[in-house]
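dumping this here before i forget
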Amino acid sequence: MTSTTRKTHTTPGTTVSTHGLLERTVGRITPQDKSLRQQATARIEQLTMPHWALGRLLDLAVDLAGMTRQMHPPVKRKAIVTMAGDHGVAAAGVSKYPQAVTVQMVHNFVHGGAGINAVARCCGARVVVVDMGWRVICPHWANALCTGASPPAPPTWSTARRCHRPRPCKA
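structure:
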């Protein structure tokens, strides 16, 4: 395909030209609104918590205010991604909790019974749980993303397998 060839995407009943799509999209991008970034920063600094306690999440809030030019930017498809894994490190005695707690916590995440689920309900977000190496086989829970790194978990970090491409647990 040459640079002068127009590429089209066809869906039933429509044809959309992608020629110049990147140029048009980039042309619509404007600098962030500095005033709204300052307002968002000032608002965050009024909250009762240690300075910038939520780290990058607060940076994102400031960025969104600047990009959308709104103090309360609309966020449509919200998700909280919770990653859980037992990489065999508990066997080394560095974890406060036994390995069995991982499965219990994941069960709570998936079935809506954990603290993060309460936060998600308050802001209308869904919770996605990612298997980062559970010692038990992914039980095909809805809302869980299995990495294929599940059992048996290696005994130490030094022998830990790398996570594989994610695969959905539920078809």
